Amino acid sequence: FMRESDGHPPVIFALASGLSRAAIAVMRLSGVGSGRIVESLCGRLPAPRRASLRGLWRRDGAEPVLLDRALVLWFPGPDSYTGEDSAELHLHAGPAVINAVADTLVALGARPAEPGEFSRRAFTHGRMDLMQAEGIADLIDAETEAQRRQALAQVDGAQSRLYQQWADRLRVLLAHQEALIDFPDEELPPEVEQRLVDGLQELHATMQASLLEGAGAERLRRGLVFAIVGAPNVGKSSLLNALAGRDAAIVSPRAGTTRDAIETRIVLGDVPVTLVDTAGLRDTDDEIEAEGVRRSLFHVKQADCVVHVFTGSQAPPRLEGDGLLVCNKIDLHDAPEGAIGISVLTHAGMDVLRDVLAAHARALTAGQAQAPFTRARHRAAIEETVHHIGRALGMDWPEMRGEEMRLAMRALGRLTGAVDVEALLDTVFGQFCIGK
Ligand code: GDP
Ligand code: ZN
Protein backbone atom coordinates (compact mmCIF):
# COMPACT_ATOMS: atom_id res chain seq x y z
CA PHE A 1 0.00 0.00 0.00
CA MET A 2 1.21 3.49 -0.78
CA ARG A 3 0.68 6.43 1.51
CA GLU A 4 1.70 10.05 0.99
CA SER A 5 4.69 9.41 -1.22
CA ASP A 6 8.02 10.86 -0.11
CA GLY A 7 7.25 14.52 0.41
CA HIS A 8 4.78 14.82 -2.47
CA PRO A 9 1.23 15.88 -1.75
CA PRO A 10 -1.07 12.85 -1.72
CA VAL A 11 -2.98 11.65 -4.74
CA ILE A 12 -6.44 13.23 -4.66
CA PHE A 13 -9.62 12.01 -6.35
CA ALA A 14 -13.12 13.33 -6.93
CA LEU A 15 -16.04 12.95 -9.26
CA ALA A 16 -15.52 15.46 -12.02
CA SER A 17 -18.98 14.93 -13.49
CA GLY A 18 -22.22 16.36 -12.11
CA LEU A 19 -24.16 14.57 -9.41
CA SER A 20 -27.40 14.33 -11.36
CA ARG A 21 -28.44 10.93 -12.67
CA ALA A 22 -26.33 10.06 -15.70
CA ALA A 23 -24.91 7.06 -17.53
CA ILE A 24 -21.24 7.88 -16.96
CA ALA A 25 -19.44 9.31 -13.94
CA VAL A 26 -15.97 10.72 -14.45
CA MET A 27 -13.65 10.05 -11.52
CA ARG A 28 -10.52 12.11 -11.72
CA LEU A 29 -7.29 11.58 -9.83
CA SER A 30 -4.14 13.63 -9.65
CA GLY A 31 -0.76 13.55 -7.95
CA VAL A 32 2.54 11.73 -7.94
CA GLY A 33 1.55 8.09 -7.50
CA SER A 34 -1.53 8.29 -9.77
CA GLY A 35 0.30 6.02 -12.20
CA ARG A 36 0.85 3.29 -9.62
CA ILE A 37 -2.78 3.51 -8.54
CA VAL A 38 -4.03 3.16 -12.12
CA GLU A 39 -1.67 0.22 -12.64
CA SER A 40 -3.00 -1.44 -9.53
CA LEU A 41 -6.58 -0.93 -10.74
CA CYS A 42 -6.24 -2.00 -14.36
CA GLY A 43 -2.81 -3.43 -15.05
CA ARG A 44 -0.33 -1.56 -17.23
CA LEU A 45 -0.92 2.16 -17.94
CA PRO A 46 -2.89 3.04 -21.06
CA ALA A 47 -1.14 5.14 -23.74
CA PRO A 48 -1.17 8.82 -22.71
CA ARG A 49 -4.37 10.74 -23.51
CA ARG A 50 -5.99 7.73 -25.23
CA ALA A 51 -9.19 6.18 -23.98
CA SER A 52 -8.81 2.45 -23.24
CA LEU A 53 -11.54 0.13 -22.04
CA ARG A 54 -10.26 -1.70 -18.97
CA GLY A 55 -11.49 -3.82 -16.12
CA LEU A 56 -10.97 -2.07 -12.77
CA TRP A 57 -9.93 -4.50 -10.04
CA ARG A 58 -9.59 -4.36 -6.31
CA ARG A 59 -6.67 -6.62 -5.39
CA ASP A 60 -6.20 -6.41 -1.64
CA GLY A 61 -8.39 -9.43 -0.73
CA ALA A 62 -7.77 -13.13 -1.25
CA GLU A 63 -9.20 -12.90 -4.76
CA PRO A 64 -9.19 -9.85 -7.07
CA VAL A 65 -12.65 -8.28 -7.32
CA LEU A 66 -13.87 -6.69 -10.56
CA LEU A 67 -15.36 -3.24 -9.75
CA ASP A 68 -16.39 -2.01 -13.20
CA ARG A 69 -15.41 -1.97 -16.84
CA ALA A 70 -14.49 1.60 -17.60
CA LEU A 71 -12.73 3.89 -20.01
CA VAL A 72 -9.40 4.86 -18.51
CA LEU A 73 -7.44 7.93 -19.58
CA TRP A 74 -3.89 8.59 -18.47
CA PHE A 75 -2.48 12.16 -18.48
CA PRO A 76 1.18 12.19 -17.51
CA GLY A 77 2.42 15.47 -15.99
CA PRO A 78 3.37 18.18 -16.62
CA ASP A 79 1.02 18.51 -19.63
CA SER A 80 -2.11 17.75 -17.64
CA TYR A 81 -4.79 20.02 -16.16
CA THR A 82 -3.09 20.06 -12.76
CA GLY A 83 0.45 19.76 -14.09
CA GLU A 84 0.74 16.46 -12.17
CA ASP A 85 0.33 12.86 -13.28
CA SER A 86 -3.45 12.49 -13.58
CA ALA A 87 -6.03 10.03 -14.73
CA GLU A 88 -9.73 9.82 -15.50
CA LEU A 89 -11.92 6.79 -14.93
CA HIS A 90 -15.18 6.94 -16.88
CA LEU A 91 -17.32 4.73 -14.67
CA HIS A 92 -20.86 3.45 -14.98
CA ALA A 93 -22.57 6.09 -12.89
CA GLY A 94 -24.33 3.89 -10.33
CA PRO A 95 -23.73 4.94 -6.72
CA ALA A 96 -22.49 1.43 -5.80
CA VAL A 97 -19.89 1.53 -8.60
CA ILE A 98 -18.74 5.00 -7.57
CA ASN A 99 -18.51 4.00 -3.89
CA ALA A 100 -16.60 0.77 -4.62
CA VAL A 101 -14.06 2.64 -6.77
CA ALA A 102 -13.72 5.47 -4.20
CA ASP A 103 -13.13 2.92 -1.40
CA THR A 104 -10.47 1.21 -3.49
CA LEU A 105 -8.75 4.51 -4.27
CA VAL A 106 -8.61 5.27 -0.54
CA ALA A 107 -7.22 1.77 0.13
CA LEU A 108 -4.54 2.56 -2.47
CA GLY A 109 -3.50 5.69 -0.57
CA ALA A 110 -5.47 8.43 -2.34
CA ARG A 111 -7.79 10.78 -0.52
CA PRO A 112 -10.93 12.69 -1.57
CA ALA A 113 -10.15 16.12 -2.98
CA GLU A 114 -11.19 19.30 -1.22
CA PRO A 115 -13.21 21.95 -3.05
CA GLY A 116 -11.11 23.55 -5.77
CA GLU A 117 -8.10 21.38 -5.03
CA PHE A 118 -7.48 20.28 -8.64
CA SER A 119 -7.51 23.89 -9.82
CA ARG A 120 -5.39 24.95 -6.87
CA ARG A 121 -2.76 22.40 -7.88
CA ALA A 122 -2.98 23.64 -11.47
CA PHE A 123 -2.31 27.15 -10.16
CA THR A 124 0.56 25.96 -7.96
CA HIS A 125 2.18 24.26 -10.95
CA GLY A 126 1.85 27.38 -13.09
CA ARG A 127 -0.78 25.89 -15.43
CA MET A 128 -3.02 28.95 -14.95
CA ASP A 129 -3.14 32.16 -12.94
CA LEU A 130 -5.80 33.10 -10.39
CA MET A 131 -7.93 35.01 -12.87
CA GLN A 132 -8.06 31.97 -15.15
CA ALA A 133 -8.84 29.65 -12.24
CA GLU A 134 -11.75 31.88 -11.25
CA GLY A 135 -12.82 31.95 -14.90
CA ILE A 136 -13.08 28.15 -14.85
CA ALA A 137 -15.25 28.29 -11.73
CA ASP A 138 -17.46 30.88 -13.46
CA LEU A 139 -17.65 28.82 -16.65
CA ILE A 140 -18.95 25.87 -14.65
CA ASP A 141 -21.51 28.12 -12.93
CA ALA A 142 -22.51 30.00 -16.10
CA GLU A 143 -26.29 29.89 -16.56
CA THR A 144 -26.64 32.11 -19.60
CA GLU A 145 -24.89 32.65 -22.92
CA ALA A 146 -23.58 36.07 -21.84
CA GLN A 147 -22.10 34.59 -18.66
CA ARG A 148 -20.53 31.74 -20.65
CA ARG A 149 -18.84 34.15 -23.07
CA GLN A 150 -17.57 36.32 -20.25
CA ALA A 151 -16.17 33.38 -18.26
CA LEU A 152 -14.49 31.85 -21.30
CA ALA A 153 -12.75 35.14 -22.13
CA GLN A 154 -11.40 35.14 -18.58
CA VAL A 155 -10.16 31.54 -18.93
CA ASP A 156 -8.47 32.61 -22.16
CA GLY A 157 -6.58 35.28 -20.21
CA ALA A 158 -8.31 38.49 -21.33
CA GLN A 159 -7.93 40.15 -17.91
CA SER A 160 -4.56 38.54 -17.20
CA ARG A 161 -3.12 40.21 -20.31
CA LEU A 162 -4.63 43.58 -19.39
CA TYR A 163 -3.18 43.42 -15.86
CA GLN A 164 0.17 42.36 -17.31
CA GLN A 165 0.18 45.52 -19.44
CA TRP A 166 -0.63 47.67 -16.41
CA ALA A 167 2.08 45.94 -14.37
CA ASP A 168 4.62 46.42 -17.19
CA ARG A 169 3.83 50.14 -17.35
CA LEU A 170 4.11 50.46 -13.61
CA ARG A 171 7.42 48.57 -13.59
CA VAL A 172 8.94 50.93 -16.18
CA LEU A 173 7.74 53.95 -14.20
CA LEU A 174 9.18 52.46 -11.05
CA ALA A 175 12.54 52.06 -12.81
CA HIS A 176 12.43 55.77 -13.71
CA GLN A 177 11.52 56.50 -10.13
CA GLU A 178 14.56 54.56 -8.84
CA ALA A 179 16.76 56.47 -11.29
CA LEU A 180 15.44 59.73 -9.83
CA ILE A 181 16.46 58.61 -6.35
CA ASP A 182 19.81 57.14 -7.34
CA PHE A 183 21.08 60.00 -9.48
CA PRO A 184 21.44 63.60 -8.43
CA ASP A 185 19.43 66.16 -10.40
CA GLU A 186 22.30 67.30 -12.65
CA GLU A 187 22.86 63.89 -14.20
CA LEU A 188 19.28 63.28 -15.32
CA PRO A 189 17.49 65.14 -18.11
CA PRO A 190 14.83 67.33 -16.46
CA GLU A 191 12.00 65.72 -18.35
CA VAL A 192 12.48 62.36 -16.63
CA GLU A 193 10.43 63.37 -13.61
CA GLN A 194 7.73 65.00 -15.74
CA ARG A 195 7.43 61.90 -17.89
CA LEU A 196 7.17 59.79 -14.78
CA VAL A 197 4.33 61.90 -13.41
CA ASP A 198 2.58 61.94 -16.80
CA GLY A 199 2.88 58.17 -17.03
CA LEU A 200 1.47 57.67 -13.56
CA GLN A 201 -1.39 60.05 -14.30
CA GLU A 202 -2.24 58.17 -17.48
CA LEU A 203 -2.21 54.78 -15.77
CA HIS A 204 -4.30 56.21 -12.92
CA ALA A 205 -6.92 57.45 -15.38
CA THR A 206 -6.97 54.18 -17.35
CA MET A 207 -7.45 52.05 -14.28
CA GLN A 208 -10.05 54.38 -12.83
CA ALA A 209 -12.04 54.18 -16.06
CA SER A 210 -11.85 50.39 -15.90
CA LEU A 211 -13.56 50.47 -12.52
CA LEU A 212 -16.64 51.96 -14.18
CA GLU A 213 -16.43 49.66 -17.20
CA GLY A 214 -16.19 46.56 -15.03
CA ALA A 215 -19.26 47.24 -12.91
CA GLY A 216 -21.58 45.69 -15.51
CA ALA A 217 -19.39 42.62 -15.91
CA GLU A 218 -19.33 42.07 -12.17
CA ARG A 219 -23.15 42.24 -12.10
CA LEU A 220 -23.36 39.81 -15.02
CA ARG A 221 -21.19 37.30 -13.18
CA ARG A 222 -23.19 37.40 -9.96
CA GLY A 223 -26.60 37.92 -11.53
CA LEU A 224 -29.06 40.74 -10.71
CA VAL A 225 -31.59 41.28 -7.96
CA PHE A 226 -34.89 42.93 -8.87
CA ALA A 227 -37.14 43.74 -5.91
CA ILE A 228 -40.90 43.94 -6.37
CA VAL A 229 -42.35 46.41 -3.89
CA GLY A 230 -45.71 48.05 -3.33
CA ALA A 231 -48.68 48.23 -1.01
CA PRO A 232 -50.46 45.04 0.04
CA ASN A 233 -52.85 43.51 -2.47
CA VAL A 234 -51.63 45.37 -5.57
CA GLY A 235 -50.57 42.06 -7.15
CA LYS A 236 -46.85 41.74 -6.37
CA SER A 237 -47.01 38.01 -5.74
CA SER A 238 -49.20 37.50 -8.80
CA LEU A 239 -46.67 39.41 -10.90
CA LEU A 240 -43.73 37.39 -9.58
CA ASN A 241 -45.54 34.14 -10.33
CA ALA A 242 -46.43 35.34 -13.82
CA LEU A 243 -42.82 36.33 -14.57
CA ALA A 244 -41.48 33.09 -13.12
CA GLY A 245 -44.06 31.02 -14.96
CA ARG A 246 -44.87 29.09 -11.79
CA ASP A 247 -46.41 29.56 -8.34
CA ALA A 248 -43.46 30.64 -6.23
CA ALA A 249 -45.35 33.14 -4.08
CA ILE A 250 -48.71 32.84 -2.34
CA VAL A 251 -51.41 34.94 -3.92
CA SER A 252 -54.22 35.89 -1.62
CA PRO A 253 -57.05 38.42 -1.62
CA ARG A 254 -56.19 39.10 2.04
CA ALA A 255 -53.75 41.96 2.43
CA GLY A 256 -50.47 41.25 4.20
CA THR A 257 -50.18 37.59 3.15
CA THR A 258 -46.58 37.73 1.91
CA ARG A 259 -44.75 38.21 5.17
CA ASP A 260 -41.23 37.25 4.23
CA ALA A 261 -39.42 37.91 1.01
CA ILE A 262 -39.85 35.20 -1.62
CA GLU A 263 -37.10 34.81 -4.16
CA THR A 264 -37.17 33.19 -7.53
CA ARG A 265 -34.51 33.07 -10.21
CA ILE A 266 -35.39 33.76 -13.83
CA VAL A 267 -33.49 34.80 -16.94
CA LEU A 268 -34.18 38.26 -18.38
CA GLY A 269 -32.25 39.55 -21.40
CA ASP A 270 -29.77 36.64 -21.05
CA VAL A 271 -28.99 37.70 -17.48
CA PRO A 272 -29.91 35.62 -14.41
CA VAL A 273 -32.20 37.74 -12.26
CA THR A 274 -33.41 36.95 -8.76
CA LEU A 275 -36.89 38.39 -8.33
CA VAL A 276 -37.71 39.23 -4.75
CA ASP A 277 -41.36 39.52 -3.80
CA THR A 278 -41.33 41.69 -0.72
CA ALA A 279 -43.91 41.97 1.98
CA GLY A 280 -46.20 44.92 1.51
CA LEU A 281 -44.58 48.14 2.63
CA ARG A 282 -47.03 49.57 5.12
CA ASP A 283 -47.26 50.47 8.77
CA THR A 284 -48.48 47.54 10.76
CA ASP A 285 -49.10 46.41 14.34
CA ASP A 286 -48.53 42.76 13.47
CA GLU A 287 -45.05 41.76 14.70
CA ILE A 288 -44.40 39.17 12.00
CA GLU A 289 -45.62 41.46 9.26
CA ALA A 290 -43.45 44.28 10.63
CA GLU A 291 -40.43 41.99 10.37
CA GLY A 292 -41.39 41.29 6.75
CA VAL A 293 -41.52 45.02 6.07
CA ARG A 294 -38.06 45.49 7.59
CA ARG A 295 -36.69 42.74 5.35
CA SER A 296 -38.38 44.32 2.34
CA LEU A 297 -36.57 47.57 2.98
CA PHE A 298 -33.31 45.63 3.21
CA HIS A 299 -33.96 43.94 -0.15
CA VAL A 300 -34.89 47.25 -1.72
CA LYS A 301 -31.52 48.66 -0.68
CA GLN A 302 -29.65 45.65 -2.11
CA ALA A 303 -31.63 45.48 -5.34
CA ASP A 304 -30.20 46.43 -8.73
CA CYS A 305 -33.66 47.53 -9.79
CA VAL A 306 -36.83 48.18 -7.83
CA VAL A 307 -40.16 47.42 -9.49
CA HIS A 308 -42.82 49.57 -7.81
CA VAL A 309 -46.25 48.04 -8.25
CA PHE A 310 -49.44 49.97 -7.60
CA THR A 311 -52.95 50.06 -9.01
CA GLY A 312 -54.84 52.74 -10.87
CA SER A 313 -57.06 53.34 -7.85
CA GLN A 314 -54.04 54.74 -5.97
CA ALA A 315 -51.67 57.63 -6.50
CA PRO A 316 -48.45 56.37 -8.16
CA PRO A 317 -45.53 55.97 -5.71
CA ARG A 318 -42.62 58.38 -5.97
CA LEU A 319 -39.58 56.82 -7.63
CA GLU A 320 -36.26 57.00 -5.85
CA GLY A 321 -33.17 55.99 -7.75
CA ASP A 322 -33.24 53.23 -10.35
CA GLY A 323 -36.72 51.84 -10.55
CA LEU A 324 -39.75 51.06 -12.66
CA LEU A 325 -43.35 52.11 -12.14
CA VAL A 326 -45.79 49.31 -12.89
CA CYS A 327 -49.52 49.85 -12.63
CA ASN A 328 -51.35 46.53 -12.22
CA LYS A 329 -55.04 45.64 -12.60
CA ILE A 330 -55.62 47.80 -15.67
CA ASP A 331 -58.61 45.53 -16.25
CA LEU A 332 -60.17 47.56 -13.42
CA HIS A 333 -58.55 51.03 -13.65
CA ASP A 334 -56.45 52.72 -16.32
CA ALA A 335 -52.74 53.28 -15.73
CA PRO A 336 -51.58 56.86 -15.22
CA GLU A 337 -49.07 58.54 -17.53
CA GLY A 338 -45.48 57.35 -17.08
CA ALA A 339 -46.29 53.93 -15.64
CA ILE A 340 -46.23 50.60 -17.46
CA GLY A 341 -49.80 49.38 -17.36
CA ILE A 342 -50.39 45.66 -16.91
CA SER A 343 -53.00 43.20 -15.82
CA VAL A 344 -51.58 39.99 -14.46
CA LEU A 345 -55.13 38.64 -14.62
CA THR A 346 -55.71 39.25 -18.36
CA HIS A 347 -51.98 39.28 -19.37
CA ALA A 348 -52.45 42.75 -20.89
CA GLY A 349 -49.13 44.64 -21.05
CA MET A 350 -47.12 41.67 -19.79
CA ASP A 351 -45.02 41.33 -22.97
CA VAL A 352 -44.14 45.02 -22.85
CA LEU A 353 -43.17 44.71 -19.19
CA ARG A 354 -41.00 41.64 -19.91
CA ASP A 355 -39.20 43.56 -22.68
CA VAL A 356 -38.63 46.57 -20.44
CA LEU A 357 -37.26 44.36 -17.63
CA ALA A 358 -34.99 42.52 -20.08
CA ALA A 359 -33.69 45.81 -21.47
CA HIS A 360 -33.01 46.92 -17.91
CA ALA A 361 -31.13 43.72 -17.12
CA ARG A 362 -29.02 44.10 -20.26
CA ALA A 363 -28.25 47.76 -19.56
CA LEU A 364 -27.17 46.98 -15.99
CA THR A 365 -24.77 44.28 -17.16
CA ALA A 366 -23.48 45.98 -20.31
CA GLY A 367 -19.88 47.04 -20.52
CA GLN A 368 -16.79 46.80 -22.62
CA ALA A 369 -16.56 43.78 -24.89
CA GLN A 370 -13.57 42.79 -22.75
CA ALA A 371 -14.57 43.10 -19.13
CA PRO A 372 -11.68 44.55 -17.10
CA PHE A 373 -12.81 42.50 -14.08
CA THR A 374 -15.68 40.30 -12.95
CA ARG A 375 -15.55 39.95 -9.17
CA ALA A 376 -15.55 42.10 -6.05
CA ARG A 377 -12.08 40.70 -5.29
CA HIS A 378 -10.77 42.13 -8.56
CA ARG A 379 -12.47 45.46 -8.04
CA ALA A 380 -10.97 45.76 -4.57
CA ALA A 381 -7.45 45.06 -5.87
CA ILE A 382 -7.82 47.55 -8.72
CA GLU A 383 -9.21 50.15 -6.31
CA GLU A 384 -6.23 49.61 -4.05
CA THR A 385 -3.82 49.98 -6.95
CA VAL A 386 -5.54 53.19 -8.05
CA HIS A 387 -5.44 54.44 -4.46
CA HIS A 388 -1.68 53.96 -4.18
CA ILE A 389 -0.98 55.48 -7.59
CA GLY A 390 -3.10 58.44 -6.51
CA ARG A 391 -1.04 58.78 -3.34
CA ALA A 392 2.19 58.45 -5.31
CA LEU A 393 1.04 61.36 -7.48
CA GLY A 394 0.44 63.45 -4.36
CA MET A 395 3.97 62.87 -3.01
CA ASP A 396 6.69 65.44 -3.46
CA TRP A 397 9.51 63.30 -2.11
CA PRO A 398 10.73 60.74 -4.64
CA GLU A 399 11.42 58.19 -1.87
CA MET A 400 7.82 58.26 -0.65
CA ARG A 401 6.50 58.13 -4.19
CA GLY A 402 8.51 54.98 -4.83
CA GLU A 403 7.02 53.30 -1.77
CA GLU A 404 3.46 54.01 -2.94
CA MET A 405 4.31 52.71 -6.41
CA ARG A 406 5.62 49.50 -4.90
CA LEU A 407 2.38 49.11 -2.91
CA ALA A 408 0.43 49.69 -6.14
CA MET A 409 2.51 46.99 -7.84
CA ARG A 410 1.76 44.60 -5.02
CA ALA A 411 -2.01 45.17 -5.15
CA LEU A 412 -1.91 44.60 -8.91
CA GLY A 413 0.07 41.37 -8.48
CA ARG A 414 -2.63 40.00 -6.21
CA LEU A 415 -5.08 39.95 -9.11
CA THR A 416 -3.33 37.13 -10.94
CA GLY A 417 -1.82 35.63 -7.80
CA ALA A 418 1.71 36.77 -8.59
CA VAL A 419 2.19 38.04 -5.00
CA ASP A 420 0.72 37.47 -1.51
CA VAL A 421 -0.48 34.13 -2.72
CA GLU A 422 -0.92 32.07 0.42
CA ALA A 423 -3.41 34.41 2.04
CA LEU A 424 -5.51 34.40 -1.12
CA LEU A 425 -5.68 30.77 -2.07
CA ASP A 426 -7.99 29.52 0.63
CA THR A 427 -10.50 32.25 -0.15
CA VAL A 428 -10.39 31.83 -3.90
CA PHE A 429 -10.32 28.04 -4.19
CA GLY A 430 -12.56 27.46 -1.16
CA GLN A 431 -15.47 28.79 -3.25
CA PHE A 432 -14.98 26.09 -5.89
CA CYS A 433 -17.01 22.93 -5.84
CA ILE A 434 -15.39 19.55 -5.34
CA GLY A 435 -13.88 17.97 -8.44
CA LYS A 436 -12.73 21.23 -10.00
P1 GDP B 1 -49.74 41.31 -3.19
O1 GDP B 1 -50.27 41.44 -1.80
O2 GDP B 1 -49.28 42.63 -3.72
O3 GDP B 1 -48.70 40.26 -3.34
O4 GDP B 1 -50.98 40.91 -4.12
P2 GDP B 1 -51.40 39.45 -4.64
O5 GDP B 1 -50.54 39.02 -5.77
O6 GDP B 1 -51.52 38.53 -3.47
O7 GDP B 1 -52.82 39.77 -5.24
C1 GDP B 1 -53.83 40.34 -4.46
C2 GDP B 1 -55.19 40.10 -5.12
O8 GDP B 1 -55.25 40.81 -6.36
C3 GDP B 1 -55.43 38.64 -5.47
O9 GDP B 1 -56.74 38.32 -5.19
C4 GDP B 1 -55.15 38.58 -6.96
O10 GDP B 1 -55.86 37.55 -7.60
C5 GDP B 1 -55.63 39.94 -7.41
N1 GDP B 1 -55.00 40.38 -8.67
C6 GDP B 1 -53.69 40.28 -9.01
N2 GDP B 1 -53.47 40.81 -10.23
C7 GDP B 1 -54.67 41.25 -10.69
C8 GDP B 1 -55.10 41.91 -11.91
O11 GDP B 1 -54.34 42.19 -12.82
N3 GDP B 1 -56.43 42.23 -11.99
C9 GDP B 1 -57.30 41.94 -10.99
N4 GDP B 1 -58.57 42.29 -11.17
N5 GDP B 1 -56.94 41.31 -9.85
C10 GDP B 1 -55.64 40.98 -9.69
ZN1 ZN C 1 -47.93 39.02 -1.96
Output the CATH topology of the largest domain: Four Helix Bundle (Hemerythrin (Met), subunit A)
**Model regions low in confidence, pLDDT < 50 over at least 5 residues:** none
SS element count, helices: 13
What's the CATH class of the largest domain, please? Mainly Alpha
Q: Terminal Cα separation, in Å?
A: 27 Å
Distinct small molecules bound, one entry per kind: guanosine-5'-diphosphate, zinc ion
Give the strand tally: 12
State which percent range the strand residues make up.
15-25%
SSE order, as H and E? Answer: EEHEEEHEHHHHHEHEEHEEEHHHH
Summarize the main sheet: 6 strands, mixed
Query: Which architecture of the largest domain would the CATH scheme give at its second level?
Result: Up-down Bundle
Query: Regarding quaternary structure, how should these chains be classified?
Result: single chain
What's the arrangement of strands in the largest beta sheet?
Answer: 3-4-5-2-1-6
Nearest-integer average pLDDT: 88
Could you give me the name of the CATH homologous superfamily of the largest domain? Answer: tRNA modification GTPase MnmE domain 2
Supply the number of structural domains: 3
Task: Look at the helices and sheets and give the structural class.
Answer: alpha/beta
Q: Determine the fraction of residues in helical runs and give it as a percent range.
A: 40-55%
Radius of gyration: 29 Å
